[in-house]
From TrEMBL:
It comes from Enterococcus alishanensis. PROSITE patterns: PTS_EIIC_TYPE_3 (PS51105). Residues 17-412 form the PTS EIIC type-3 domain. The keyword rRNA-binding does not apply. This is Permease IIC component. Its main location: membrane. The phosphoenolpyruvate-dependent sugar phosphotransferase system (PTS), a major carbohydrate active -transport system, catalyzes the phosphorylation of incoming sugar substrates concomitant with their translocation across the cell membrane. It is a multi-pass membrane protein. The keyword Transmembrane helix applies.
Length: 448
């Protein structure tokens, strides 16, 4: 694979990564808490989709300027507000239910009971009432998302402790399972209720009446807010691609990124509905549509380079990879070229791919592209970019991404192509030599 000295240097880097990064990634991927968070955030997808649609539809009268449309929205427009409230307005509550479900499933606990315990605990610390006794649900939305994560883990762990140490009420044999499971919940429910009431009281006392979700948000604000920095975005994208390069799915980072991405999208949608400026560029939609455009590392340029290659093998790989790339799937490129553990493609894939992937985010910051308000479902490239912010300019920027990707990968691919052409020529020469030797032997046999 080139210069032996460079190969040796690459081997050292690979060895260092495998000793340090890979074990950490494996631990993260196998951690039950992080796995539950990751799965729980995935469950949020239809909720966010519904909330995004509710935010988009009220804009229809601006594009279809007819009296009938205006009258319909004036009469029934409140429906979209309701949809927004029951989707994005309760995303924190949905998150605590989803995370507690997956975590309790891991511990083989009564899942419905775990969800109920976590919901009770979350509502105790995140809900408030006014002087008339009306519920104030301000922190049941994305502002309560990180509280939901902590509450779900603590509640399920308490339930597990009580179950493991047999500190639950056991019913006699013959009692239906659902009845027995309900009675088992009595002692952990009482403990969790008391614990979170105390947490609520202590928080109120120390913060002057500020609820726990706001306290947690204030503590995490520097870390959460930093993800909107272009430098931090680039570092995150590089780290995702480093994982991919060493054969580790970048989903190991989703327990950290997904809650922030969900919160950012919810805040952008809320700002859009209120007619206020949008501020966040990182959502699951932008990561999929732009950072992973045509696949992690924006590998469409490499696919095009292979399609026009003189190498028969790379032409075949390019042909196989083209269609999946149009849907953001590039495993045929990652494993077929391969990119994974290929020192020649390390620089364009990791560092170049991260830069090309964040190009639309730079455009958002400069005002050349709408901020995201939608996480599109599984759709082809270009359409996904357009739907993310409903901005046709996304298509132009993605064409630029392809051009940059091609220019970035081409010189490195030429190194691989030459190596492959040399191998193909060598194989042909060997084949011809074998044929020549067989012909010579045949003539010798005839002479004999």
């Amino acid at each position: 694979m080139g210069n032996p000295q460079k190969q040796s240097a690459f081997d050292k880097v690979e060895g260092f990564i495998r000793k340090t990064l890979v074990p950490v990634a494996n631990k993260v991927d196998n951690n039950p808490y992080l796995t539950a968070i990751k799965k729980g955030m995935v469950v949020m997808t239809p909720v966010l989709l519904l909330g995004s649609i509710a935010a988009i539809f009220p804009s229809i009268p601006e594009f279809i300027k007819t009296q009938a449309v205006a009258n319909w929205f004036e009469t029934y427009g409140y429906i979209f507000s309701i949809i927004s409230k029951v989707s994005l307005g309760l995303v924190g509550l949905y998150a605590v239910l989803a995370i507690s479900y997956f975590l309790s499933e891991n511990y083989k606990l009564y899942t419905v009971g775990s969800m109920m315990l976590s919901a009770i605990a979350f509502l105790i610390v995140a809900m408030d009432v006014d002087e008339n006794g009306n519920i104030i649900a301000s922190y049941l939305d994305s502002k309560g998302l990180f509280t939901a994560i902590f509450v779900a883990i603590i509640s399920v762990k308490i339930y597990q402790f009580f179950t493991k140490h047999k500190l639950v009420i056991k019913m006699p044999e013959g009692v239906p399972d659902f009845v027995s499971s309900s009675f088992e919940l009595i002692t952990p429910t009482a403990t969790i209720g008391i614990l979170f009431i105390v947490i609520r009281a202590v928080t109120d006392s120390l913060s002057g009446g500020v609820l726990l979700p706001q306290v947690i948000m204030d503590v995490l604000a520097p870390a959460i807010g930093s993800l909107d920095s272009l430098w931090i975005i680039y570092i995150v994208l590089v780290l995702r691609l480093v994982f991919w390069f060493f054969g580790i799915h970048s989903a190991v980072l989703s327990p950290i990124l997904s809650p922030i991405a969900v919160q950012y999208l919810s805040e952008n949608i809320a700002a859009h509905e209120a007619g206020q400026p949008l501020t966040h560029v990182i959502t699951n939609g932008t990561l999929s549509a732009f950072a992973n455009f045509t696949g992690s590392g924006v590998t469409m340029g490499l696919v095009i380079a292979m399609l026009i290659s003189r190498s028969a093998r790379y032409k075949k790989v390019g042909a196989v990879a083209l269609l999946p790339s149009l849907f953001g799937i590039n495993e045929p490129v990652l494993f077929g070229v391969p990119i994974i553990l290929n020192p020649v493609l390390m620089i364009p894939f990791i560092f170049g791919g991260a830069f090309v992937g964040m190009l639309p985010m730079i455009a958002m910051k400069l005002g050349f592209l709408n901020f995201p308000i939608f996480d599109p479902p599984y759709v082809p490239i270009f359409m996904e970019g357009f739907l993310t912010g409903f901005d046709w300019r996304a298509i132009i920027i993605q064409v630029v991404q392809i051009a940059l990707s091609f220019g970035l990968y081409l010189p490195f691919f030429k190194v691989l192509e030459k190596q492959e052409l040399d191998r193909e020529a060598e194989n042909i020469a060997k084949s011809n030599q074998i044929i020549s030797d067989e012909d010579e032997q045949y003539l010798t046999d005839i002479d004999f």
